[in-house]
């Protein structure tokens, strides 16, 4: 079934291109309710819908900046920190960095296998989301959308962006001679998940309807990233799926089980995203992704994770499958497997490794929130106590660890965010303080963020952006806009603390870790529509 659908006309309908980085976003995250969950209706095949939910109040035009409430914490308190970088600034900055980690990468860098959409399809997508002449769309030139992403590459730009117009994506190309051209399952899956979760964000009624005079860009991006995730999923099914074991293998033959769990998560999300009745419905491809998710679940069902990181990725994927599965038996089996992993590997977990501790916290909070069983959150508290006992609040890092790769930072940020959002009440203040300090120390002062969105000082800044403080875009210490450092706005592979100062010990772009961090930053709350915590017990949309 999968092969038949892949080879159908759907292949040419799935992707039409988008302009994530070239035009600055005109809105920022605000607390909005989740979309109302309803049973899945039956509908005739139609193009992806882009109309807004009818029962959700339409916000004011995105040219009006929402008011940021004063944060309880003024600055992180770490040595060398910016007193203006508080909890509110962290949430906003996470939003912008998440977008800009994947936008220039998947649309402009060239670091992968490209797919060039027909012009007429791009024009059709524009018509679907923009029908008000007061809010026109401009499509950038020289886009290079990627249907598969390479493992790593140099972050050095081959061109100076100042030599190009703001809508020319040729400005953000990377050097192909530096690429590791392996297509890894984990990198592909994390990138797909990044796309689907941002599609949920842009489906929010916060961005209006096609008839409104605001939000057309965001609605367009939503359609495009949804379609691109489907194209990348098709590539994975055709080129990475091993029909003998039902698992996805890297292009070099390596079998990465953690990557397969992330792929289960993202296949489930693509299936949800394309379901009949939604904004991105695609009745032609949705059965393919639902079948692919069920097939991968069956292939993984007997697997016992071999690390806390794999266990956490597995639990998040299984909880999502339990929520999205259209077959209730599959959903029940997925939840049973998630419980089994938590009981067998994370309850009573003991390790001195802070990254392993962080991953265990993610898994325990995820299953605790899904089941509403307090024993899992109590177990997360125990691991969290060990984690914070090792924390140095003066420098914002852990005493036992001086070298941090991007995946390490992603797990730690994710664990602190999960504790803050869904952990036991007694741990939330400590989680908030630690998250603020660790984020500022590593991503900002440590130099992990190599460059940042242009913000209000960039040539692409819109009127709305110019009204926001610079700290919500980048840290003033050492995260300048791309033209200043000739780097793509992505995180470095590795940073090192020598006891006195930070250094970037590898500035290479490692896709799996970078997209993992982009996802964790997107899930910092409040968020527009992404789904870090599936509302189990409620019917899927």
Description:
With 541 residues, the chain is mostly helical. It has one domain (2-34, 81-522): Glycosyltransferase (Alpha/alpha barrel), CATH 1.50.10. The chain is built from 17 helices and eleven strands. The protein has helices at 2-6, 10-13, 87-107, 119-129, 185-202, 216-239, 257-273, 286-300, 308-324, 328-346, 354-371, 374-389, 406-422, 425-445, 463-466, 482-485, 511-522, and strands at residues 112-114, 146-149, 152-153, 241-242, 247-248, 391-392, 397-398, 403-405, 494-497, 502-506, 509-510. The strands form five sheets. Strands 8-9-10 form a three-stranded antiparallel β-sheet. Strands 1-2 form a two-stranded antiparallel ribbon. A hairpin with a 4-residue loop joins strand 4 (241-242) and strand 5 (247-248). The chain is globular, with a radius of gyration of 22 Å.
Give a short account of the largest sheet. Answer: 3 strands, antiparallel
- Uncertain segments are 1-73
Structural class: mainly alpha
CATH architecture descriptor name? Alpha/alpha barrel
The number of E-state strands comes to 11
> Which H/E pattern describes the elements?
HHHEHEEHHEEHHHHHHEEEHHHHEEEH
Number of domains: 1
List the helices and strands and how they pair.
Blueprint: H1 2-6, H2 10-13, H3 87-107, E1 112-114, H4 119-129, E2 146-149, E3 152-153, H5 185-202, H6 216-239, E4 241-242, E5 247-248, H7 257-273, H8 286-300, H9 308-324, H10 328-346, H11 354-371, H12 374-389, E6 391-392, E7 397-398, E8 403-405, H13 406-422, H14 425-445, H15 463-466, H16 482-485, E9 494-497, E10 502-506, E11 509-510, H17 511-522
Antiparallel strand pairs: 1-2, 3-11, 4-5, 6-7, 8-9, 9-10
């Amino acid at each position: 079934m999968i092969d038949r659908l892949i080879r159908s006309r759907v292949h040419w309908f799935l992707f039409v291109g988008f302009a994530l980085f070239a035009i600055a976003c005109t809105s920022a995250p605000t607390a909005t309710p989740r979309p109302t969950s309803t049973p899945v209706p039956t509908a005739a095949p139609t193009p992806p819908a882009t109309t807004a939910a009818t029962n959700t109040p339409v916000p004011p035009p995105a040219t009006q900046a929402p008011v940021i409430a004063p944060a309880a914490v003024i600055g992180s308190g770490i040595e060398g920190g910016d007193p203006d970088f508080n909890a509110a600034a962290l949430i906003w900055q996470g939003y912008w960095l998440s977008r800009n980690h994947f936008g220039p990468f998947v649309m402009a860098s060239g670091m992968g296998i490209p797919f060039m959409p027909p012009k007429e399809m791009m024009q059709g997508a524009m018509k679907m989301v923009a029908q008000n002449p007061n809010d026109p769309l401009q499509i950038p030139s020289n886009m290079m959308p990627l249907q598969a992403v390479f493992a790593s590459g140099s972050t050095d730009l081959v061109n100076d962006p100042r030599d190009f117009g703001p809508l020319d994506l040729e400005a953000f190309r990377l050097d192909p001679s530096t690429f590791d051209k392996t297509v890894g399952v984990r990198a592909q899956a994390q990138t797909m998940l990044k796309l689907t979760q941002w599609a949920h964000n842009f489906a929010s009624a916060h961005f209006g309807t096609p008839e409104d005079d605001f939000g057309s860009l965001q609605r367009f991006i939503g359609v495009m990233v949804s379609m691109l995730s489907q194209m990348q999923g098709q590539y994975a099914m055709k080129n990475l799926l091993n029909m003998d074991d039902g698992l996805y293998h890297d292009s070099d033959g390596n079998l990465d089980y953690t990557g397969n769990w992330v792929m289960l998560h993202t296949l489930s999300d693509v299936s949800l995203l394309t379901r009949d009745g939604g904004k991105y419905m695609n009745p032609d491809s949705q059965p393919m992704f639902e079948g692919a998710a069920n097939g991968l679940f069956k292939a993984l069902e007997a697997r016992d994770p071999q690390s806390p990181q794999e266990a956490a990725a597995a639990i998040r994927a299984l909880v999502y499958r339990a929520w999205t599965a259209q077959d209730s038996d599959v959903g029940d089996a997925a939840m049973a497997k998630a419980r089994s992993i938590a009981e067998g590997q994370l309850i009573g977990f003991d390790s001195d490794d802070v990254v392993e501790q962080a991953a265990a916290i993610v898994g325990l909070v995820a299953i605790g929130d899904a089941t509403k069983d307090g024993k899992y959150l109590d177990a997360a508290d125990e691991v969290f106590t060990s984690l914070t006992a090792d924390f140095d609040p003066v420098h914002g890092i852990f005493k036992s660890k001086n070298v941090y790769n991007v995946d390490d930072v992603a797990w730690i940020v994710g664990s602190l965010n999960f504790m803050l959002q869904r952990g036991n009440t007694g741990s939330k203040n400590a989680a908030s303080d630690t998250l603020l300090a660790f984020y500022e120390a590593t991503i900002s002062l440590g130099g992990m963020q190599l460059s940042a969105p242009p913000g209000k000082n960039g040539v692409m800044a819109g009127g709305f952006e110019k009204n926001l403080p610079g700290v919500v875009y980048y840290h003033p210490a050492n995260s300048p806009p791309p033209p200043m450092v000739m780097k793509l706005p992505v995180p470095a592979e590795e940073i090192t603390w020598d006891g006195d100062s930070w250094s970037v010990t590898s500035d290479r772009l490692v896709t799996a870790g970078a997209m993992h961090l982009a996802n964790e930053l997107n899930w910092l709350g409040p968020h527009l529509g992404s789904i870090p915590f599936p509302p189990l017990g409620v019917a899927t949309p």
